[in-house]
Amino acid sequence: ELRNVSFRYPGAPEKVLDNISFKIAPGERVAILGRVGSGKSSLARLLLGLYPPEDGLVMLDGIDLRQFDPAGLRSAMGAAMQDSTLFTGTVRENITLGRDGVDDAEMLRVSEIAGAHQFLGQIANGYDLRLSDRGEGLSGGQRQAIAIARALAGSPRIMLLDEPSSAMDQQSEALLIERLNAELKGRSLVLITHRPSLVQLVTRIILLDKGRVVADGPRDEVLARLQPARAVA
User: Fold this and answer.
1) Which CATH number fits domain 70-168: 1.20.58.1610, 3.40.50.300, 3.30.420.40, 3.40.190.150?
2) What does pTM read for this prediction?
3) 200 compared with 229, residue with greater pLDDT
């Protein structure tokens, strides 16, 4: 839940989020839409507890995120951000680090869902392949697949995905959507995207513009309201 949340980056003159309030119910799937610069990614960072709000409260189960132990928050939430980075180490370490109890079976399961297993199975070292900093040598889509597998590992009850398929081809994205639809049943999803294909994963859309919520409702109703505006534009 966000309650009257405003935020600006340190030293910045303008707020990037301005008096935002909404609740997400357990198990609800919500997309955050908006133009570039509308505040979508900044909102994601606040939801993850990476930044505190300037005003207002960001809460989980009615408790201010700042009251949570960081390790406990990480176990409850899985995130694959648009700028998610891979670190120097094996693919296995990149997927399982910080996720207690994630064994090889779970690693393989989430890698299959994310689309990482398909290319790792064709590489000699597979999950023991050592990655350089930021995963250089892998394609953008391959890096995204590993980041999504890491987010899914351990089945956190809340998933936050920020443009998770922006570097994937159409076929890889379609397979990802199909698998996520099955995997995320009964779990909360916050999806930040501008890709219409991904919106089928959600039942509700929150539309941001210049750091404010300008629409919030059932997916099909909000999309229907957006169509005339796009036609005029």
Assistant:
1) 3.40.50.300
2) 0.92
3) 200
